[in-house]
Amino acid sequence: MLKKISALRILILLVSVVLCVSFLVYLNQDIYQVNALSSMGSRGSEVTEIQKELKSRGLYKGNVDGIYGSQTKEAVIKFQKQQGLSADGIAGPQTLKKLGISIGTVPSASESNVNLLARIISAEARGESYTGQVAVGAVVLNRVEHPSFPDTLSGVIYQPGAFTAITDGQFNEAIADSAYSAARDALNGWDPSGGAIYYYNPDKTSNKWIRSRPVIKRIGKHLFCS
Questions:
Q1: With 90 as the cut, is the pLDDT of residue 146 above it?
Q2: Mean pLDDT of 84-98
Q3: Which residues does residue 219 pair with via DSSP β-bridges, in sequence order?
């Protein structure tokens, strides 16, 4: 009887360990998504800017195509060595700064920032789930940190043509209560979008360019893209 009890305890312990390890792996995958940097396999406007800067310095001989391939990685490594940086071939914040590619920082969760972010969240995602609202807020903040967009919260939100809610008047409507909490969560680091810088409702747009963007995930009616 005692042997059976001991065996059961060992089995329960092993199952618990497996579950804990699986959960930690899941968390690490999510964190990696959120903090994704330009590296081998990356595509987009940030990679294009990196290639342009490296080409102007004579370090990159390939095409400026926005695709982070082996030539781009080799050029980044050369640049990092010149600048005394860790030569890992990944264009992180320090490398981008040395290249002169401007990136902003996520603002604090001050009352004014919460109110401004909540207003765009409410206008753009009023009918979405809470997670979907936080994701829209996260996209705004991801743009602040991205070199292809303005470096401030207000700059991103008021960028001409960036959000339809600005032009159709929804931005000036009453703010949904949930949007305030969603704004705080986004400003405090929650990013359900997986690091997206675009989102759209596939049922409401026929824009070929936005539909060509690599989809990270779907939350409610929105597709979130890189």
A1: no
A2: 89
A3: 222
77 compared with 104, residue with greater pLDDT:
77
- Residue 208 in tokens: 């070929």
Whether 185 contacts 129, CB under 8 Å: no
- pLDDT above 60 for 181: yes
Partnered with residue 223 across adjacent β-strands are 200, 218
- Contact call for residues 104 and 150 (beta carbons, < 8 A): yes
Homologous superfamily of the 45-99 domain (CATH) = PGBD-like superfamily/PGBD (1.10.101.10)
What is the chain's length? 226
| Distance separating alpha carbons of residues 153 and 159, to the nearest angstrom | 10
177 or 94, higher pLDDT: 177
CA 107 to chain centre: 15
Q: Which residues contact 174 (CB under 8 A, 6 or more apart)?
A: 122
The CA angle 200-205-206, to the nearest 5 degrees, is: 130
